Structure formats: structure tokens, C-alpha cells
Amino acid sequence: MSDTPRFEPLDNTVVPRYAGIPTFMRLPYAPDPTVLDIALVGVPFDGAVTNRAGTRHGPREVRNMSSLIRRVHHATGVDPYAHCKVGDAGDTPVVPMNMMKSLELIEAFYKPLAAAGVIPLSCGGDHLMTLPIFRAIARDKPVGMVQFDAHTDTGDAGYGGEKFHHGTPFRRAVEEGLLDPKRTVQIGIRGARSSSDYSDFSHDSGMRVIYIEEFYDLGVDKVVEEARRVIGDGPTYISFDVDGIDPAYTPGTGTPEIGGYTTHEAQRMLRGLRGANLIGADVVEVSPPFDPSGNTALVGATMMYEILCLLAEARAGK
Ligand code: MN
Ligand code: MN
Is the Cβ–Cβ distance between 153 and 257 less than 8 Å? Predict the structure, then answer.
């Protein structure tokens, strides 16, 4: 008999899915996540929001709703747990009232994972959290990115001159040499601007910006083709802001913008990234206080699962 944990979900024919302690996907808690191939990490941080808060509660609610997720993907047949050791690494430490300190703590949490070659799949949290994750995993070589979002998040120091908020992570990441803008594609951008002299760092730096109008003009398959062209074969991160999806499906988020893609279209796009060189991902901006039905948390959990299947195949292929 081995005491080695199996790092796969509880069997729902043995332990009903509504029972037990809700970890991500009902996986074992891994207090030492460096033993894993893929670590699911909560980042309970919303100190960088510019408007409606609440994403600090995201990881807990996504964990709860993730108990609905089964193990084998119905469309691709992928069983991520057959490929990889996957566990719940718990939440990063944060100091709720100190953003800069929280950024340091988040980065410090991911550094040992990066050193051990563990792929992180994180759940937020507001979108600034991707910056400290990049600082931990992309210092040596800038990553490419597929970003699902209604917003580019490449703003500058608005809001009283503050350089760090959830509308700036990807401008800061390019400036810090962590993100390669030429290998970045942003999908689903929309919403009114704050002023008419708006210029966007995404365009200026060479990111490929697919506005929602172009998304619907091209269709899912062509958008996927374009995203694959942009990221190429290099190491690539998926950052999935749930506000990229239409708020009919994801009302529980801080900055909703109507007219987005559906949950199914998002799933199809993610599946189109099978075989890409994926080195990490996150699902961000689930805000439970605006999510009375729990559906936004369910969408977040399901997108995490879709991405987990991609990461498991990517990891197994290495
Ligand atoms: Mn957004
Ligand atoms: Mn965002």
C-alpha cells in the first residue's frame, strides 16, 4: 500500500459531488505543489479593481461550483488526470489592504512552482494578478498570450496616476519584458471609451486585437486560426477574463460589457488551442457578490476545466 496521493478527483460514484471539502475539481489539496505537474491556484485578491469589487471571493465560489465538473471531456475525450498529476495548491497569500505587498506575495508563491517546472492554472482575483504570475514564470523569456477579454488591459496610469490596476497588467508586462506583444492576441474587445483621444498601447505595441465585431465577422474557426498564427510555436499563456463572455452568461463580474461571445463559442475557441505550446493560464474576474445564481462561478470553473485539458495534453507532450 502506498500513501502517495493519486492527485486525481474524488470518485463521484463513491463520494457524491455535493459532499466533502470543495477543492478545485475535487482534487487533493497539495500543500507542497512542487510535486505536481499542474497546480490549480486561487488568488483571492481584488485590490486593483477600478470599479465594482468582489473578485477576492472568486476562488472559493469557483472551487464550490467546480464540484459539478466530471473528469473526461465530452468532446475531445481528454482525461487530464490520466496525463498529469493535478492538485489544488490552495490560495496565494495576500494582504487585502496592500496591493504592492500582495503583488510580491503572489509572485513569491509562483516562483517555486516555476523552478520545479509545474504549470500553474490560476483562478482570480482581478486581472492585475496575471502580472506577478508573469514575473514568476516569464523573467527568462517573454511569453505569448491568448487573452479572452472585453478589455485590452493595456491602459496606463489613469485613476490618480496609479500605474498598477486591473486595466494595466499587459502594458506593464510588456514594459517589464515579460510579455511579447507580437505574440499576443486579444479576443472580444468592446465597450465605450473614456475619451475620444483614446490611443491603445495594444495597437501601438503590435498586439493583434480582435474586436467583437471582427470575431462575429470571422467566426470561431477563423479566429482560432488567427490566434494560432499570432502565437506560433513559442511558449504561450492563456488569460481568460470572464467578462469577455456576454454578461447574459457571466453577470457576476466587475466590468460587464454587453454583446460578447457565448460560453459555447469560448469553449470552441479554447478547444481550438489544442496542441499549442501552453505554459500556464488563468481565469479571472469572477465576482461572487454580483453572481447570485452562481452561474458565473460555474462558467469560471468550466473554463478552468477546458483549459486544464489543454494544459494536461501540453504537459504530457513534453
Ligand atoms: Mn475585462
Ligand atoms: Mn481583463
Answer: no
Ligand nearest to the CA of 151: 1
**Which cell is 177 given?**
519584458
C-alpha triplet 15, 21, 27: angle, nearest 5°: 75
Q: What is the pLDDT of residues 51-94, one digit of tens each?
A: 999 999 999 999 999 999 999 999 999 999 998 999 999 999 99
Q: Which of 187, 276, 181 is nearest to 235 (CA)?
A: 276
Distance (Å) from CA 239 to ligand 2 centroid: 8
Ion ligand 2 nearby residues (CB, 5 A) = 127, 149, 153, 241
What residue numbers bound the domain in which 130 lies? 24-317
Query: Has residue 12 been placed in a domain?
Result: no
Structural domain count, the chain: 1
Question: Taking the model in full, what pTM does it have?
Answer: 0.97
Ligand closest to CA 130: 2
What CATH number should be reported for the domain holding residue 172? 3.40.800.10
The C-alpha cell at 299 is 462558467
